[in-house]
Amino acid sequence: MKIRKTLGGLTSETNSHLESLESPEQNSPRRREEGFTLIEILIALAIMALGFLATAEMQSLALRQRMRAESGTVATNIIQFASSRDVARVKQRRADNASFFIDVRNGKEACPSSEFPDPLDALAEDGNLSEGNPQRGCTPVDIETPNPDKLTFDDKCDLDTPGTDFFVVKEVERADPISISGVPIVTVTLDYGVIDRSQAEKFDPDKELDEQPFARRKGDSYLARHSSLITAHEDNWSQVCSSWTSVIVPDLP
Fold first, then answer.
1. Which one, of 200, 198, 125, lies nearest residue 168 by Cα?
2. Torsion, Cα of 243, 245, 246, 247 (10° steps)
3. What integer is the mean pLDDT of 145-155?
């Protein structure tokens, strides 16, 4: 340190190295900044966004699968409901025929000249189920208040029904009789499917259920599918009425 005296007093002239020495940060050409750069922040945000998207997609997939499973359960119940309705109609027709047969045999009713009513015709919406003439139809289903009397299968799905998201499509086909041990046997195939509103718009009554526009593969796009058979045998009741030579008796429990 150098010190000089002046007339006005003492003046300290310091060339101290400590005073003239700048800090390391000040000596550097560019002051170093602390923290993350903008690129690092953007990369971190992108990684977080990908993670969030993956989580959201997994949750969405799980939700869709759960909804599909719930819809499948509802659709299965709908098919059972529709199938039970058709079988009940055949059974009722058979019971009416049996009662009428007993009344005619006991002389309470006159013997008609027409053929005995065919219980299998109850499976057709127009009341006439003939061999080789399959019938197809669609009907909406109200799952909140299901009513078998409201299941009316038409050529087109009734999309104007409010609050209905499920539709039942049905195909009924009666085969030609075959003889087993000398007894003619009649077989009717019932094929049911449950579809949603978007698929119901594409329903074509001229195509089989497996060939519908919305069916990519057999049964692939249906919420539920079910097929069943109803068999019946022909009997001869001409001993009671001469016109009852070919009476159809369904083989149902």
1. 200
2. 70
3. 81
Question: Is 30 within the bounds of a domain?
Answer: no
* Residue listed under structure tokens 């025929």: 97
Is 164 inside any structural domain?
yes
Residue that has been written with the tokens 């499509």 in this structure: 169
Reference 171, options 232, 242, 219; nearest CA is 219
Contact 81, 169 (CB under 8 A): no
Range of the domain at 156: 77-250
Any idea which of 127-136, 173-182, 220-229 has the lowest mean pLDDT? 220-229
The sign of the dihedral angle between the CA atoms of 143, 147, 153, 154 is: negative
For the stretch 160-215, pLDDT in tens is 877 778 899 999 999 999 999 999 999 999 999 998 888 888 999 999 998 888 87
Place of tokens 């003492």: 10
> What values do phi and psi take at 114, rounded to 5?
-85, 170
Q: Which two tokens stand for residue 202?
A: 């594409």
Q: Around Cβ 194, how many Cβ atoms within 10 Å?
A: 24
Q: Is 90 helix (H, G, I), strand (E, B) or coil?
A: helix
- Residue 9 in domain: no
Q: Exposed, middle or buried: residue 86 (CB in 10 Å: 0-12, 13-18, 19+)?
A: buried
**In-domain check, residue 184:** yes
The DSSP 8-state label assigned to residue 154 in this structure reads: B
Looking at the structure of the chain, the number of domains it has is: 1
Please state, as a whole number, how many other Cβ atoms lie within 10 Å of the Cβ of residue 16. Answer: 11
